[in-house]
Amino acid sequence: MSLNQLIENCRTNDTKAQGELYKLFSSKLFSVCLKYSRNYAEAEDNLQDAFLTIFDKIEQYKGKGSFEGWLKRITINTALQRYRNEKVFDIINENVAEEIEIEIDEDHIPLEYLLKIIQELPDRYRLVFNLYVLDGYSHKEIADMLDINVGTSKSNLARARQILKETIENYKTRQSLQSL
């Protein structure tokens, strides 16, 4: 069955088609959920909530643009809604630091470690970092999505980069000491 036919069948609440759509996209969307969740269990909850929204709103997809992109936007918004409800962005005025460059030596820093330290960032920093760096949203778009101002988005990104830079430098130091 073609993707267009699958979408059409989902519009009629065909549970078999919904199951097929879930099988087709759940692993990709789960990786999106992991980026925006505190842990694996929360990512699973966000994935389920995202699919409920997808099936509920599938008639709104008009066939323009990428269907996968449409699914991803719904998934990100579903995960972010949890944070909006928890008010994790009712925060402090932080001074916006200059753009911080992070030196990553891919040969010596495992990808699993990088993903782990991003996952461990405080919620407000992790969300802005993922939206800006990994998903390419602008500070204006992030501010609109998270209901914060542009300055807060920039500040949170700078702080996330600072934390990651310090963590990576500590990791490199530990690695070099162990190799002595």
TrEMBL record:
Keywords: Sigma factor, Transcription, Transcription regulation. GO terms for molecular function: DNA binding; sigma factor activity. Residues 21-87 form the RNA polymerase sigma-70 region domain. The keyword Transcription applies. The keyword Transcription regulation applies. Residues 112-162 form the RNA polymerase sigma factor 70 region 4 type domain. Belongs to the sigma-70 factor family. ECF subfamily. This is Sigma-70 family RNA polymerase sigma factor. It comes from Hwangdonia lutea.
